[in-house]
Design a protein that fits this description.
It is built from 9 helices and 8 strands. It is an alpha/beta fold and 208 residues long. The chain has a domain at 2-110 and 171-205: 3-Layer(aba) Sandwich (Rossmann fold). It has a 5-stranded parallel sheet, with helices on both faces. Strands 6-5-7 form a 3-stranded antiparallel sheet. Strand 5 (122-125) and strand 6 (131-133) form a beta hairpin. It starts with a strand and ends with a helix. The model has no long low-confidence stretch (mean pLDDT 96). Bound molecules: adenosine monophosphate. Adenosine monophosphate binds at residues 9, 31-32, 35, 52-53, 57-59, 64, 85-88, 92, 154, 163.
Amino acid sequence: MKLVLLGPPGSGKGTQSELIQAKYKILGISTGEIFREAIAGKTKLGLSAKSYIDKGNLVPDDITIQLVKERLNKPDCKNGFILDGFPRTIEQAETLQKLINIDLVLYFRLDLDTAINRLINRRVCVKCGTIYNTNFYKKQNCEKCNGKLSVRDDDNMDTITKRLLVYNNQTYPLTEFYKKLNILKEIDSNRTVEEIKKDIFKILGGLK
Ligand code: AMP
């Protein structure tokens, strides 16, 4: 199974990717996560990505495409994967099409005000990466590993506004791109994690 998760920031791609990985024993690849790890490790990639990410811009296509090409070439990708956060531009999508056949693109449709509310209230476990929403989870530590919960650097109002604008201009057009290829399935993401998960598992179950 080769899956792409497409949708605005805050639409639950990361959360659902974790759930799909656990159920279907499939590898998850998040370009945002790779960039954040590179930034934390102060690598060359991290240093060049940071300035774009901090401003809410996309990391340039040449850097991102090269990174994904190298990742998809690794042996653990042979049996399938979930791409969370890639592609985000038409150029990235066209390159991906040339590299592999994607089975399905799940498009997480989300209202703008819900996206803003979720991002402002998002917390991430510093240890295991589990994502929480303070509207529903009031504790300061992760329920899985007791790690401290933190706010992502780019989850502030200025950067959120920019990211949503960038999404509309550069990433939303990919819905048309994949509709034309007949591999797009829309998910209403203005719902609970459980409801969305149920829909996704039903779709993925039908694929097998
Ligand atoms: P995410 O964790 O998916 O929200 O990504 C965090 C940030 O990483 C984004 O706001 C972008 O700056 C950068 N990023 C992640 N994926 C991509 C991509 N496919 N193309 C360009 N920039 C990306």
